[in-house]
Every structure is written in structure tokens, then in C-alpha cells.
């Protein structure tokens, strides 16, 4: 978490109260001690989510509210951007390849804050978290296939929608505007559909070419398992 945004933290607290407190009171009526205890729970969700059987969608909502991302996430976004000459787009906001890669470095805070600011334009917390997972998946696919690049702009909304369409088809779910069934699916399930959407995008709009070398050191550890 790069920035603690009070509004989003309050949203995460509200979600926690809805999940774990029967007939929750307005946040402002809780004592400072109670708020501190709840805040600690919210900020450490990854430590207790499995132990307390937190549902997948509830965890995505809380982590999405906080804009929590995996380790090395911003390095991964940098590597994806290297392979997207037309840039990355989500919710109408664009992350252009140039001059971003020329003016910044992968490790500087300015780049990470730029990526985070674009993610914050996604208003639905669980959708934001799915996009974080999607970028992680794209990074792993490109790492394993160095000959690939995206010739067209990488539209993350389109990839999520394509994955959702495939999920609905396979699970006999009516394709509507509500993506909650997809957001509630286990990580292994959503990873599979998101990866398929990325591969389909590569087949229709990608190109088997040698990517541009921006003379930056590469990171090799993979943070996402795709089979």
C-alpha cells in the first residue's frame, strides 16, 4: 500500500463491520479503541483471511479498498508496459508506453504512484483487485514468452469482460452486468479465465516479435502460478 487514503480505509472498515458485526453501528459511533482494533484487522487481512474463512469476494473487497498489491507488482507493470507499444488502458485512463518509460525508471516511486492513481479510477474495490490480479497474470505470461508483445492497446476492461463471458458460458450463468459471481470465484478459477482472455487477445491482436530492450534489469521470480 503506497498511500493510506482515509476514504478507502473507511470503506474497508465499513465492509469489515458488515461482514463480522451483527447490526453494525455507524463508524463514527465506535470508540477510538474499537476503531483501532478494527483498523488493525483490516490492514492485516491476509494474515487471518484463511483462518477465519473469509470469502474470496469479501477479501477482494477489503484488499481492493486498500489497493493492496503483491510484492514486485509495480515492477511487473513496468515489464508489461515494455511490451505494449500502444500502452495500457483501464476505465478510460491510459498509461502510455512513451514517454513513461523514457522519463521514469521501474524502481522509482513516481511510477508506482502513477500506476496506483490509475487503479484508483476503478470505483468497485473487487473489480480493482481483479485488475491487479490480471496485470500479475499478463506479466507472468509475457515473462514465459519473451517473443510476445501487444501491438494494440492493452485494454484491461475488455480482458476482464472476456474472462467473465467465458466464465458465464462454462457455468451456465446468464451474462449480465453484475460480475459478482466471477469476483466471488476462487483465485484458481479466475486465474484460468483471465489467462485465457489474455491468450485470446494475443492471438487476435498480439504479434510474435522481439520486444524493445529498454536496458533495464529483469526480475525473474514469478509471483503467480499459471498452469
Automatic annotation (TrEMBL):
GO MF entries: calmodulin binding
Chief location of this protein within or outside the cell: membrane
Task: State its location(s).
Answer: Cell membrane
For this entry, list what GO says about its biological process.
glycogen metabolic process
Q: Which InterPro entries match?
A: KPBA/B_C (IPR045583), PHK_A/B_su (IPR008734)
The cellular component terms of Gene Ontology attached to this UniProt record, alphabetical and capped at eight, are: phosphorylase kinase complex; plasma membrane
Enumerate the spans annotated as Phosphorylase b kinase regulatory subunit alpha/beta C-terminal domain: 57-174
Which Pfam families does the entry link to? KPBB_C
Q: How does it sit in the membrane?
A: Lipid-anchor
Pathway per its UniProt entry is:
Glycan biosynthesis; glycogen metabolism
Q: Which UniProt keywords apply?
A: Calmodulin-binding, Carbohydrate metabolism, Cell membrane, Glycogen metabolism, Lipoprotein, Membrane, Prenylation
- PANTHER family per the record? PHOSPHORYLASE B KINASE REGULATORY SUBUNIT, PHOSPHORYLASE B KINASE REGULATORY SUBUNIT BETA
Full protein name = Phosphorylase b kinase regulatory subunit
- List the source organism: Bracon brevicornis
